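A reminder from the course coordinator: this example appears on the midterm review sheet, so study it carefully.

Given structure:
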């Protein structure tokens, strides 16, 4: 279990928050949280707890394999399967952290998410790649390298993202997404957050508040 997953699980354990809020506000979409590489839904539990306290119905998903050994597209297909089973015909919002942000974007652009998703919020996502992906030779990491054929192809129809409320948060102190401005997209409301490290993007109170504000738009 990664540090982010351990911290999220520990905070949620001591807080005692339920899996799904018993009293979400009826005028809001349910929210699906998508974790990053090498992680699980446990790393998103603190963000989930915060949003539930703010009145959202929140769900988390476990992407497998979580090192993206088979690529980004099969992971995005898991969002599609989860949404069809859990939400039926309901619209929903997506919040993705790190690799999960890119996976969420792929679902919106290529797998029908435009017809289902109102808000797309990403935190420190490698939308334009990260040089750290050169350290891992599997398919998903090759796809997340700057200038990869996968990212170049995905950029061809990125203007589709203008049909959703797209917000991209990132920190200038990120040592995982390099360069840090790789998270910026011309179709997004790009917000720079002074967060000390990549994993803290899903725990920092300023980020949590900003995610909630983006979902309220």
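Designed residues:
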């Amino acid at each position: 279990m990664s540090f982010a997953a351990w911290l999220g699980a520990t905070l949620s354990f001591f807080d005692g928050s339920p899996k799904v809020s018993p009293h979400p506000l009826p005028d809001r979409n349910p929210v699906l949280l998508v974790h990053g590489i090498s992680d699980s839904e446990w790393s998103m539990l603190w963000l989930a707890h915060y949003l539930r306290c703010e009145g959202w119905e929140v769900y988390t998903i476990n992407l497998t394999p979580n090192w993206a050994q088979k690529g980004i597209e099969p992971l995005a297909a898991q969002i599609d399967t989860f949404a069809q089973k859990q939400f039926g015909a309901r619209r929903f919002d997506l919040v993705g952290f790190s690799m999960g942000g890119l996976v969420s974007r792929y679902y919106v652009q290529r797998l029908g998410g435009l017809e289902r998703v109102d808000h797309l919020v990403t935190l420190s996502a490698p939308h334009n790649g990260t040089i750290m992906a050169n350290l891992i030779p599997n398919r998903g990491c090759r796809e997340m390298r700057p200038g990869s054929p996968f990212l170049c192809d995905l950029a061809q129809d990125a203007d589709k993202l203008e049909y959703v409320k797209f917000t991209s948060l990132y920190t200038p102190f990120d040592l995982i997404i390099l360069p840090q401005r790789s998270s910026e997209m011309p179709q997004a409301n790009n917000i720079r957050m002074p967060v000390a490290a990549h994993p803290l993007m899903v725990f920092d109170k300023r980020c949590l508040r900003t995610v909630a504000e983006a979902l309220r738009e």
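Residues 3-14+33-216 form a domain with the Rossmann fold fold (CATH 3.40.50.1820). Helices lie at 3-15, 45-53, 72-87, 99-110, 139-143, 149-155, 205-216.
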